[in-house]
Amino acid sequence: HYSCAIREELKPKKIGVTVVCPGWVRTEFFDRADNNEHVHGPKKYKPMYDAQKVVKRAIKDSQKGKSKSIYGIYNKIHYFGSRFLPRPLMTKIWKNMQK
């Protein structure tokens, strides 16, 4: 919401703002993250997207003047679903995907 508000504020100055929704991106973080039984976070990060592909898409979307850059079909489904389904249901779906 913050990025959308900034986008509107900066529009008269011809400055574009694109929100990037990358989902899980394959980085060194996941190589180092301790995911043992003491961690309450996700056990599986899926789907994992390639950082270069996410950035390439974000740049293209920004150049096209899009307000959002949502990479990957799962992220698009999640975004769409979150607009119409109750938050507890979306949270449960996300949680089950990460088990």
The SSE string, one letter per element, is HEEHEHEHH
Shape: globular
What is the CA-atom radius of gyration, in angstroms?
A: 16 Å
| Count of strand segments | 4
Widest sheet, order of strands: 1-4
Count of individual helical segments: 5
Q: How many angstroms separate the termini? A: 29 Å
Q: How does the major sheet shape up?
A: 2 strands, parallel
**What structural class do the secondary elements suggest?**
alpha/beta
Helices and strands, with pairings:
Elements: H1 2-10, E1 19-21, E2 24-26, H2 28-32, E3 48-50, H3 51-63, E4 68-70, H4 73-84, H5 87-97
Parallel strand pairs: 1-4, 2-3
Could you characterize the architecture of this molecule?
- By secondary structure, the protein is an alpha/beta fold.
- 51% of the residues lie in helices and 12% in strands.
- Strand 2 (24-26), helix 2 (28-32) and strand 3 form a beta-alpha-beta unit.
- The relative contact order is 0.17.
